[in-house]
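Here is one chain, start to finish.
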Amino acid sequence: MPSGGDTAETVVLRDRFIIDPSMPLPDLNMPHADAYHAEDRRGSGKPVYALVCRTDLPVRIGAMRALKGVQSPGLLQLLEWGTVEWPALGRKVMVVVYDRPSGGRVLPAPGQRFDPISEVNFVKKVFRPLYHALNEISQHGVTHRAIRLDNMYWFDKEKERLVLGDCTTSPPGYDNPPAYEPVEYAMCIPEGRGSGTLKEDMYALGITCIGLMNGRDYVSQLPDVDVVLSKLAHSTYANYAGEGRVPMNFLEIIKGLVADEQRDRWGLESMDMWLNGRRLTPIQPQPARRSQRPFKFEGKDYTSARELANAMAMNWDAASAPILDGRLEIWLRRGLEVTELADAVALAIRMSQAVQIEARQVNDLTIARVLMLMDPRAPVRYRDIHVHPEGLGNALAVTIMQKKALRPYVEIIGRELVKYWVEAQGYHDAELGHFESQAKEHAGNLSTTMMGYGIERCAYEMSDTLHCLSSLVEAEYVSEIRELLPALDRVSSKVDPKTQVVDRHIAAYIAVKWQRDTKVQFRAMAEPDEYRATLGMVSLLAVLQWRLGPPALHGLCGWIGGQLGPIINSYHSRIRRKDLEEQIPNLVRKGSLPELYNTLDNQEERQKDAEGFAWARAEYSSAEQKIRSFEQGNLVRDERGYARGQQMGALLSVAVALLTVTTLVFLRMI
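Its structure:
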């Protein structure tokens, strides 16, 4: 490709960055985003590259906004992001453009060894730049959540500058092996980990530093199940930092970074003090309470509540019997000697069994609540779904995008399991209060069946940067509300004209992203009367165009214009219907939904039509009555009576006239 130019095969982002789909850069690929050669039209001279995101995973648009242009010695600079039309897929995709590192990945390939960073240079090359990178990221209100050896690069060929790679092209924590996650996040399914806090980044940094010190990534090769089991049985430090893997000079900082308890883990302030020569004493972890009498479950003995809860979560159906038959409660009371926990478990079982739902859901709810009490730090666990409350939205989004079963999420939200998780924590703060209030709101949205609500509303509420997943516009990658109508306008020529313009996803997306009251329109769209439902749809889209533009939507107006039959036919006057049929093509050519709506729902015309119809009904009723009278013979008798009445009236008039004349003559004679 010519330098600084673009060809028919290239795509351009924001009229600046030229991306060449024919020049992949596999060495810079992310697990779920492919790298391609890119150039800057402004001629900055800096090498850049683009990451093209997958279409079936939500990306971190919020992190893209926050990190664009951020510069730090330990961070790969994000230069631009946005959507482009990708030729190979025939649709829009999200791309992110970064400065291109010239020194390659620290870990060239999984399992491969590399030159460890010497103890002498470790502070200069690793701790200081990565401290500054995390400090810069935290000041912009985001977490990285993708710190691991295979996402670290040497920015220069001399390998003097170490930088963190991309963190935006997949959900937070999604690509991290469980070894890089604290145990409560390692238990989660990858899409259900959530953004977490800086403390989770500090933990991953500690694990990464152990790898940099040893020249290999031995933790990523361990089976996920074994990683969780080892972290539950022993501390992270004992698992990964022992056996001479960490130099004596760095034992203190590594212990602080990989502390299993979040409250004990070092933050930026502690790391800064250590870098400036102040030595700290990491808090020693408290060993888990263990029973002298093990609990046998699925052929294995367990002596701690956390390990038993994890085993039950991994063998869900088998957990029902020991929970419901009282064996677990007895062990907690007599083995572990935690009477308060045993009482709480017994109460949770009674309350769950009293819920009026199908038997399977009752058992699932019971197991979920009991596991929360046994291990409050663990994620919300419901059969195969293990999610942190903060990661529930991403997990739901991935499920919808990849067309997986939604039922577990419907039950998690509908049964308000997050509320029970909050109650199990044993304390309350602003974050937990937020989770609790959101759980109630989501359950309410889920139970409302009309458009703008349901599981779709929950997905957009819980994942605020999720693009619109309607099958109509998903390929247009609508990530802002003002992009929705133009996207519908573009696809109008590609869809069946009879296709409903607003589906459940579009309605839910508008309800969440449009910060105005749309309940009136959604109620109208939910009515069985086709006229009211169609008018509600036109009103909803007309308001959007009125407020957000663009001024003309010819394709969308034409699409809607072909579906206005119920509204036109709702007028009783044939003359009015004909007028509308003649006016609509002209309005469609203008591309204005507000004008179209105002014409269709003109209140003055509606009143005239109603009054005219009422008068016509009265006349019709009178005519029907006459017809019935005629058919019954009553009409002839009525006409004879009318004639006699006329005769009598004439005679009476003559008599009155004679009397009047006689009276006048008499008066004159006097």
